[in-house]
């Protein structure tokens, strides 16, 4: 895109001509500034560019052939539009102003540009001091400030040059030039001293002509490497004399310097170890040349990369450990596109890492994937919050599998989202076992209703009791193993990374916990692999027992009787029947029974189901009173009407219920009895729902007794909700996909 003309174009051009600088020969002071700009900003190209009517002309350039380009193709034509800011183009291909320019699409293939305007004292912008790279990048604040300072110093040199010409007095001109040169050298030295890199400037023979403060410190502290020599010593001879572990790298650096000196290459880079007696250290050396027209100078800059090397090594170890765990691990960007996946994830899903990277996780969804769970995951991602849940996903071959998924966001020190970490676990075997248990549960309920509660107790439950004990042992073992699972430790590692996201290199370099991570992750991988093998063994054992129970149930079904018929029954009669069936036991345990009967009408119900629920309530109340050790054991049976519902209540003054158990007391398999099976209350809750009612429990805590309540509708027919509850919902399993 062609840059517009500045509003002061005519005055700007007049000021530029007044300097008489265009088309003049190279000058060392300007060459020094360009090489310093390239060195500070670590770019291969630096230019002092002056923009006239039709072109930008290079007073000094490093790393770029030619002396001028058309103004229409010049980045600097845009820089002169704003005298107060550095123009920084991080990626020219992504900037519509420059993407189609020839210097971007062809040689020199410019990707990065930063230009500081050269502002004359009158305020007119003459051109720019710019740095250029062939790769996208971004200046640091320190580099940007240094570039502005160098641009001001360039204008100072232009002013000195014009004044010297205007004064025409040789002695005065020399004095001013010497002063400017001294100032320039002082400025250059101060700038070099401010840099953390260790810099030495060599002449054409390799003699050190200047060093910065960092280089002096390194020479003093590492005499065994440098010989303690500084300015005046021959750098190449120091490299040639090097012995021991550093000898090979020193010789390679010397060869690189000589190649740059001879013009065989424009620059040289090498990473090398430089260990001391007390520390392991790594450096990278950059060698560049400047001063093409005059005396050549070689800049040798050493940058300490020890911290980076340590971080890279630890990241490699951590990455290897993460890829070894049996759980699938995904890392995605803020745009939710996958950046990497470990081997376990590819094994679980059947997709290769190449097929996964760059994708959104929607490719795992299928026809039976729950939309509500997908919406919950999407909401968590939008809000950048944690998610934990289960979802039915699909492998590459189309088979379904249950996925236990956790997703955690990772933020930087400013709180900005930078990554998502997802951990997946294939729990299909567990879900299949749960589904088979649920099928068995429904079969037992049906058999119970057909054969009658007494017949089930003496036949099916008698026959399957031993097998159910084995099932319970397996289920308990699986539950204990899952509760003790170390899977949450992966989340802790993710939380640790998230906590240290602001400065991961610093964390790995200084925090003792970082050094423990590789071993910890290796142990975690071994533990989770062993845990998975144990769970699979229990699942197989559980399947065999379930098959055995199914055979027993099928055999007992031949004795079943038809049930499920509703009839009109008075609630008081059910209270009496429940008490009569428990009368002997209540008398033996010296429990006082109080009946509180309200005005209630007869209702149409499945008498067998309601009686089964009430008998279970009364028996539990009896056990609670007996276990309390009280002498005034009491059970109240209450029936009353509340609008369009009849409410049965069984109230005891027994041991009570701990608050944490109230929410799960009707769950399948939950019991507080040593010899309990967790079947009665759960089956009663299901039966109540099938009749359009519900069960509930209340207790003020241990020692405060409990109240179990059954609510039933007075209407003769069940509600649509009850009909729906009576139809089992099939569990989507991988085998059904």
Walkthrough of the structure:
By secondary structure, the protein is α+β, with helices and mostly antiparallel strands. Strand 14 and strand 15 (400-411) form a beta hairpin. It is elongated and about 130 Å long. It contains 26 helices and 23 strands. Helix 9 (235-241) runs antiparallel to helix 10 (247-261) and helix 15 (428-451) runs parallel beside helix 20 (512-556). The strands form 5 sheets. It has a 6-stranded antiparallel β-sheet with strand order 3-2-1-6-5-4. The model is unreliable at 451-460, 554-563 and 716-737 (pLDDT under 50).
Percent helix: 40-55%
How do the strands line up in the largest sheet? 3-2-1-6-5-4
Write down the Rg.
Answer: 42 Å
Number of helical segments?
26
DSSP E strands, number: 23
Q: Can you tell me the overall shape?
A: elongated
Q: Whole-number average pLDDT? A: 82
Structural class: alpha+beta
Q: What proportion strand?
A: 15-25%
The CA-CA distance between the termini, in Å, is: 57 Å
Which runs of at least 5 residues are low in confidence (pLDDT < 50)? 451-460, 554-563, 716-737
Task: Describe this structure in a few short sentences.
With 737 residues, the protein is α+β, with helices and mostly antiparallel strands.
How does the SSE layout of this entry go?
Layout: H1 9-18, H2 28-41, E1 45-51, E2 55-62, E3 68-70, H3 76-79, E4 87-89, H4 102-105, E5 112-119, E6 125-133, H5 141-167, H6 170-194, E7 198-202, E8 208-211, H7 213-221, H8 223-226, H9 235-241, H10 247-261, E9 267-273, E10 282-290, E11 297-304, H11 306-324, E12 328-332, E13 338-341, H12 343-349, H13 353-356, H14 371-383, E14 387-394, E15 400-411, E16 417-426, H15 428-451, H16 453-458, H17 460-483, H18 487-499, H19 504-510, H20 512-556, E17 567-569, H21 571-581, H22 583-588, E18 592-597, E19 603-605, H23 607-628, E20 634-642, E21 645-652, H24 659-662, H25 680-690, E22 694-698, E23 706-713, H26 720-726
Helix pairs in contact: 2-5, 2-6, 5-6, 9-10, 11-19, 11-20, 15-20, 17-20, 18-20, 19-20, 21-23, 23-25, 25-26
């Amino acid at each position: 895109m062609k840059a517009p003309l500045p509003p002061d174009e005519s005055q700007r051009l007049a000021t530029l001509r007044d300097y008489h600088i265009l088309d003049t020969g190279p000058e060392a002071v300007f060459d020094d500034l360009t090489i310093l700009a390239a060195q500070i900003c670590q770019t291969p190209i630096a230019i002092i560019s002056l923009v006239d009517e039709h072109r930008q002309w290079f007073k000094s350039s490093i790393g770029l052939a030619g002396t001028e380009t058309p103004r229409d193709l010049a980045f600097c034509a845009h820089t002169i539009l704003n005298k107060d800011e550095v123009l920084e183009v991080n990626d020219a291909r992504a900037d519509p102003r420059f993407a189609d320019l020839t210097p971007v699409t062809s040689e020199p293939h410019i990707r990065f540009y930063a230009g500081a305007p050269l502002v004359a004292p009158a305020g007119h912008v003459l051109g720019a001091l710019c740095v250029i790279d062939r790769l996208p990048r971004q200046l640091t604040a320190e580099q940007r400030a240094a570039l502005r300072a160098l641009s001001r110093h360039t204008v100072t040199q232009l002013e000195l040059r014009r004044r010297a010409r205007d004064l025409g007095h040789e002695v005065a001109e020399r004095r001013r030039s010497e002063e400017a040169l001294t100032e320039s050298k002082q400025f250059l030295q101060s700038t070099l001293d401010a840099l953390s890199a260790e810099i030495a400037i060599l002449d054409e023979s390799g003699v050190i002509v200047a060093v910065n403060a960092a280089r002096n410190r390194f020479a003093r502290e590492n005499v065994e490497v440098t010989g303690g020599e500084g300015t005046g010593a021959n750098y190449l001879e120091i490299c040639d004399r090097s012995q021991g572990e550093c000898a090979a790298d020193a010789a390679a650096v010397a060869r690189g310097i000589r190649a740059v000196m001879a013009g065989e290459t424009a620059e040289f880079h090498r990473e090398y170890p430089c260990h001391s007696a007390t520390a392991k250290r790594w450096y990278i050396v950059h060698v560049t040349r400047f001063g093409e027209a005059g005396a050549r100078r070689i800049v040798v800059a050493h940058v300490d990369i020890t911290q980076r090397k340590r971080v890279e090594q630890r990241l490699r170890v951590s990455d290897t450990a993460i890829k070894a765990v049996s759980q699938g691990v995904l890392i995605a960007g803020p745009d939710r596109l996958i950046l990497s996946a470990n081997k376990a994830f590819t094994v679980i899903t059947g997709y290769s890492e190449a097929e996964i990277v760059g994708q959104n996780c929607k490719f795992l969804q299928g026809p039976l994937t729950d939309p509500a769970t997908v919406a919950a995951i999407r909401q968590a991602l939008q809000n950048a919050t944690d998610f934990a849940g289960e979802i039915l996903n699909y492998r590459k071959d189309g088979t379904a599998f249950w996925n236990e998924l956790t997703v955690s966001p990772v933020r930087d020190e400013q709180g900005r989202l930078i990554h998502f970490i997802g951990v997946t676990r294939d729990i299909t075997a567990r879900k299949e076992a749960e589904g088979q248990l649920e099928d068995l549960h429904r079969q037992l309920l049906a058999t119970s209703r057909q054969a009658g509660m007494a017949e089930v107790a003496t036949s099916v439950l008698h026959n399957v009791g031993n097998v159910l004990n084995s099932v319970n042992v397996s289920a308990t073992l699986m539950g204990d193993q899952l509760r003790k699972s170390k899977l949450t430790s992966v989340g802790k590692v993710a939380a640790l990374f998230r906590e240290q996201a602001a400065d991961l290199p610093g964390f790995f370099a200084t925090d003792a916990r970082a050094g423990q991570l590789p071993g910890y992750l290796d142990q975690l991988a071994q533990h989770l692999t062993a845990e998975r093998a144990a769970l699979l063994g229990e699942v197989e054992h559980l399947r065999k027992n379930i098959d055995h129970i199914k055979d027993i149930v099928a055999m007992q079904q031949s004795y079943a009787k038809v049930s499920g018929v509703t009839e009109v029954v008075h609630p008081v009669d059910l209270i009496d029947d429940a008490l009569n069936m428990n009368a002997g036991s209540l008398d033996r345990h010296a429990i006082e029974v109080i009946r509180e009967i309200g005005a209630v009408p007869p209702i149409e119900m499945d008498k067998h189901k309601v009686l089964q629920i009430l008998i279970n309530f009364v028996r539990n109340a009896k056990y609670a009173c007996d276990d309390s050790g009280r002498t005034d054991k009491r059970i109240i049976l209450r029936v009353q009407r509340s609008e369009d519902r009849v409410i049965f209540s069984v109230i005891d003054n027994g041991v009570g219920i701990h608050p944490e158990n109230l929410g799960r007391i009707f769950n399948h398999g939950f019991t507080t009895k040593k010899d309990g099976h967790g079947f009665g209350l759960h089956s009663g809750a299901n039966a109540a729902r099938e009749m359009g009612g519900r069960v509930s429990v209340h207790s003020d805590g241990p020692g405060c007794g409990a109240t179990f309540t059954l609510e039933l509708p007075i209407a003769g027919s069940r509600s649509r909700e009850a009909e729906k509850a009576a139809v089992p919902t099939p569990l989507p399993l991988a085998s059904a996909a």
